[in-house]
Design goal:
Low-confidence stretches: 603-608, 697-701
Number of strands: 35
CATH class of one domain: Alpha Beta
Helix content: 10-25%
CATH architecture of one domain: 3-Layer(bba) Sandwich
Distance between the termini: 33 Å
Largest sheet: 7 strands, mixed
């Protein structure tokens, strides 16, 4: 029996939850309490959830966020999104083949209705991630009554998927603390304020012209909320790419992957390939390695990755091939992903013929950027409802920036409502700009000439907002400019007559794992290097032979592990020590985890780019849309009418940017394009709920 669950993780606690039986196509399988249907299927090695009604193409998970319908299955006869529905004992799951046939309903069944819940609040916050929580805390502190709604079962947004330590400022945004722990801190803080109501598993559906917001409350009932001010902190959604094979099961976003691995503790893949070198892709690769998944490679179309260099360096040190100026040509396979084909690109980002490479993999992660979830903000402005946006809904940036963005917006709203009389401190806006800033200049690595005693070597070479190393050094030997935490840290050999004691705190707490400790005291010719390591302790043991590498992942020396240890307050980072020749000791930045990744001998057969699926829901290809553009159509509504592109369950969230890209490729200026109206509802909702239909067993009928 296949069991792809994680039973150990170097960072995340793994609870021993009871297993129970469910059935997939009549086969008895085991699920863990609290799993979604999708995670239970992945845990049992099932990747194909349904077959599209248009052409029978296999369908798998895509967003894992309830915003599309790629993962639709029949559960006890009803079509449900498997990524959102919890599995229950004895549940009978069938893949959806064609359009679903709903169970027959007795027309004599008595329907019961109740009045729709309506309430007024000073502030409605859509989104319980870092921005929404920070805003709610500021409002709660000042006694503002507000309602916070989030569509997940717990607060924290994407923070609950982030096992790495955060960058930024220790003082302002918990830098040096893991995202999962920041989520807990923010939730505990916001729940201290009784003025803040919280509705979990509740989805904002629409903003209406009467300045009310429709909410699907707890997935079961409909409510209307009339706020004096709306704050949209709904985060972002991942962008997609159009390439041959992009519709195969096994092609999905990095957020979906992190949900499966870090929330559901499921190992959904053995061999992973990543497209996109921003922080999202780089971090997902690191999370994959922590879960015991081989990362076959990462491609980035630009000459350099867009994410933090320290994130890139972590992957390179561990043996992940990072190929810049490369792009994906196709994902290959019959029923699901079996391999990927990539190629180098020229200065105009065109694939270079003859540069194709093929790698075996079973999953391709698309991590090519984010779009703000700002539909509610735009609609509120249209209807003249006072509205603010915070976090990624306002501007795509790091989660640390979202925390501070929410803090500022919360205080601005409190001021507008008269609950705060002062001005927002000017330095808050300055801090916000620093936290939102893109990665800055990269400097060449510099090593002190000293070859005695013990001292840290800082391998952080890029200007990014980060200061934990300066906060944890007990002797204040590491300093970061307090006025601009983007500056590189400076190390002082001595202060107040004291030098480095070798306490190792800077090594343990650096978010980028970019500090090592070199100790010449025992053996000046073979000093001992201390390296941070965030994998299971049993992965590496004293006496093991390891390859030590520099920041770019180049092997410097082989050595044997002299010890593996933890220090007090290590926060799940262990320290690996090894003795190395003094000629390379300062250059050692990490140790290699993965062996070389071989290419597969497989001739690349050029595939027609027009085959790429643009609208995943309705399976409309680039060629179908491109033909209409060439015929002179400029109205996306007309394209939708002819092809059904944009008419699927995701509400055109994924395909609309790709349709605009096709217009650009055909040389059509944006001014000539007529966009389609935005869908009135954010997700699908049973119509009965709008009428106040009572649901559940007590009312004698199913909720659907």
């Amino acid at each position: 029996m296949i069991d792809n669950r994680l039973y150990k993780h170097p960072i995340l606690p793994v609870e021993d939850k009871p297993l129970f039986s469910f059935y997939f196509e009549g086969l008895e399988l085991k699920a863990r309490e609290g799993e979604t249907i999708a995670s239970a299927l992945f845990a049992n090695g099932i990747r194909i959830f349904s077959y599209h009604h248009k052409d029978g193409a296999p369908q798998g998970i895509f967003c894992a966020n309830g915003q599309c319908a790629q993962c639709l299955v029949l559960a006890d006869g009803f079509p449900v999104k498997s990524c959102m529905e919890l599995i229950r004992p004895g549940m009978k799951i069938q893949p959806l083949v064609g359009l679903p046939e709903l169970p027959k309903v007795n027309p004599e069944t008595r329907l019961e209705f109740k009045s729709i819940e309506e309430l007024e609040v000073s502030v409605l916050i859509i989104g319980g991630g870092p921005a929404g929580l920070s805003a709610a805390i500021e409002l709660g502190q000042r006694g503002v009554d507000c309602l916070l709604v989030d569509d997940k079962h717990r607060l924290g947004g994407k923070l609950v998927l982030q096992t790495h330590r955060f960058f930024g400022s220790v003082e302002a945004v918990y830098a040096g603390t893991r995202g999962i722990d920041i989520a807990t801190r923010l939730e505990q803080e916001v729940r201290r304020y009784p003025q803040v109501q919280i509705w979990l598993q509740s989805t904002a559906l629409a903003v209406f012209s009467d300045k009310k917001v429709g909410i699907l409350k707890e997935g079961q009932k409909y409510a209307l909320v009339k706020p004096r001010i709306l704050l949209v902190a709904a985060g972002a959604r991942e962008k997609s790419l159009a390439f041959p094979g992009n519709d195969l099961p096994g092609v999905y976003g990095a957020g979906a992957f992190q949900t499966l691995v870090n929330r559901d503790l499921v190992k959904p893949t053995e061999k992973l390939f990543i497209v996109g070198g921003g922080n999202v892709g780089l971090i997902a690769g690191y999370h994959a390695l922590q879960a015991g998944i081989k990362v076959v490679g990462l491609v980035e179309v630009m000459p350099e990755v867009g994410g933090y260099k320290v994130h890139k360096d972590k992957l390179a040190r561990l043996g992940v091939p990072i190929m810049t100026s490369h792009t994906i040509l196709s994902a290959n396979g019959k029923e699901s992903v079996e391999s990927v084909t990539i190629a180098r690109v020229d200065e105009k980002f065109r694939p270079v013929p003859g540069s194709e490479k093929n790698f075996k993999c079973d999953t391709v992660l698309i991590a090519v950027g984010l779009d703000p979830v700002n539909e509610f903000y735009l609609k509120a402005r249209e209807f003249e409802l006072p509205v603010y946006a915070a976090g990624d809904a306002e501007e795509i940036a790091e989660a640390s920036a979202a925390i501070f963005s929410g803090k500022i917006k919360g205080l601005e709203i409190a001021r507008e409502l008269g609950f705060y009389q002062g001005q927002v401190p000017a330095d808050w806006y300055r801090t916000a700009e620093i936290l939102k800033s893109r990665p800055g200049q990269v400097y060449p690595e510099y090593f002190v000439e000293k070859e005695e005693g013990v001292f840290p070597v800082i391998h952080c070479l890029q200007e990014i907002p980060c200061d934990p190393c300066s906060a944890v050094c007990p002797r204040k030997l590491i300093e970061v400019d307090r006025n601009d935490v983007r500056r590189l840290p400076v190390y002082y050999e001595e202060r107040d007559g004291k030098g480095c004691s070798g306490c190792e705190r800077c090594v343990v707490f650096c978010p980028g794992l970019a500090i090592t400790l070199v100790d010449y005291r025992k053996n000046p010719e073979f000093p001992e290097v201390t390296i941070p390591f965030e994998f299971l302790k049993e992965t590496i043991n004293p006496g093991d032979e390891i390859e030590l590498v520099d920041v770019e992942g180049q092997v410097l020396a082989k050595s044997r592990v002299s010890s593996v240890k933890s220090i007090k307050g290590n926060d799940r980072t262990i320290l690996v020590k090894a003795q190395v020749p003094k000629a390379v000791a300062k250059k050692v930045s990490g140790l290699k985890l993965q062996a070389e990744i071989p290419q597969i001998e497989e001739q690349y057969l050029a595939r027609i780019p027009d085959e790429a699926i643009v609208c995943r829901c309705e399976r409309v290809t680039a060629g179908e849309i491109r033909r209409l553009i060439r015929e002179g159509i400029r109205d996306i509504n007309e394209i939708k009418t002819i092809t059904r592109a944009g008419m699927g369950p995701c509400g055109a969230k994924t395909c609309t940017p790709l349709v605009h890209r096709l217009f650009r490729e055909e040389g059509v200026p944006e001014s000539e394009i007529v966009d389609q109206p935005k869908r009135p509802l954010f997700v699908e909702v049973p119509l009965g709920l709008f009428a106040g239909l009572e649901t559940g067993k007590e009312s004698g009928h199913e909720p659907r």
